[in-house]
UniProtKB/TrEMBL annotation:
UniProtKB keywords: DNA-binding, Phosphoprotein
Coiled coil (residue ranges): none
Domain HTH luxR-type stretches: 148-213
Modified-residue entries (4-aspartylphosphate), positions: D59
Pfam family, one: GerE
Name this polypeptide is given: Transcriptional regulatory protein LnrK
Segments forming domain Response regulatory: 7-124
Amino acid sequence: MTESAISIVIADDHPLFRQALSSTLANHYPASCIYEAQDIASLQQQLSLLSQVDVVLLDLNMPGCIGFAGLIHINANYPQVPVIMISADDSQAMMAKALTNGAAGFISKTSSAETIYNAIDTIMLGDIWDPDKLLQKNLEPNEIDEQNARLIASLTPMQFKVASLLINGLLNKQIAAELSVTEATVKAHITSIFRKLDVSSRTQAVLVLDKLGICGQ
């Protein structure tokens, strides 16, 4: 057990897993603040409101995104916050891809509590949690992965939210109501999204966003 006071956000869409992990971490880090997020939108809100976040534990597939889209987006907009990916898929290929996409570490959902503590403690010291030395194998993302990562990273947090609602088929008026902004603001964000994705219609935008791993809330 450590008395280190750190701030942790657990982002996973399964309440029982979040609660179990939160309880496990609270036992080891009793002086710390532990927050929970059930989707990418609530994770974005936590990161924007909290004055300090020391580490995010992010599920691989969350409402709002699948794969590494969430990781890339968080890294681009909150580069000071290390992200540990969590997944039931603990293949070396998956772990390697997480690390090459900027994860500070990767934890299997079947990992022991001790492994989780070791990963967090390692990252809190400024290191990468890479017990299998995967980064030493000079793994590089392919050209398509790099291009997709650049597109995701180019979206601001609000544009990411608008994109997620756009995929759901919401009209500008509905998106504006959902985000508590004006229709003009929504139109401006959609125009920027179209420009960044190099598309000219909602249908084209949805197809590109789907390929990027950005999905509806």
